[in-house]
Amino acid sequence: MSNRLNIDLHGKTVLLNKEHFKEGTDLRFVCKDGFGCSSFTNGTSIYGTWVSDGKEDKINGYDVESLLEEKK
After folding, report:
1. Rounded distance, CA 35 to CA 46, Å?
2. Domain-by-domain residue ranges, the chain?
3. In what order do the strands lie in the sheet with 28-33?
């Protein structure tokens, strides 16, 4: 399992575990690539962007707390 949810996260927005980040951080992250985006790989790195400012970053698949609902 490469992310805590054990699902495909490519292109999905997730909420990150607040215990792993400093207080006041916007915990919404858009997953774009990396082994941690897949449910069937061994790596846990997820590359993407922060919703708050669009900056690119890398997180760990185990930092993911939940999947955010997509507005339709």
Report:
1. 7
2. 13-67
3. 56-60, 45-50, 28-33, 13-16, 64-67
What is the C-alpha radius of gyration for the chain, rounded to an integer number of angstroms?
Answer: 11
Beta strands in 1-72 (DSSP E): 13-16, 28-33, 45-50, 56-60, 64-67
Residue with tokens 């990396």: 34
Q: What is the pLDDT of residues 40-72, one digit of tens each?
A: 888 999 999 999 999 999 999 999 999 997 654
10-36 confidence digits (pLDDT tens): 999 999 999 989 999 999 999 999 999
